[in-house]
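Q: I'm writing up a methods section and want to include an example of the input and output format. Could you take the sequence below and give the corresponding predicted structure tokens, formatted cleanly so I can copy it straight into the document?
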Amino acid sequence: MQSDKEFVLFRRFGHLHSRIFLHKQDAIICLEQELNELDNNETNAFFLNSRRADQNTARHDVLARLEPKLTEYGKICGSCCTLSISDVLWTNFWTHISAK
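A: Here is the clean output for your methods example:
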């Protein structure tokens, strides 16, 4: 395979990234539903506004499981956006250089 030393092409595995992204998104949605159910069944609304006063251990558990998933999801969102922006910049650069 012949290739230019200044040009490299890599697969992005967009389809696989999308599947992983949707899988993580669904896991977050399940935890969100669990949290909403706990909140809707709460008899004292004050507990929903005060982490320190809230004595619902199930809600604390859901939030503890939710936090790392949201953090990871946010990182994936950021990297996908970064890849898209860099791809656009690279394409613009390549088009500009090729036009000369």
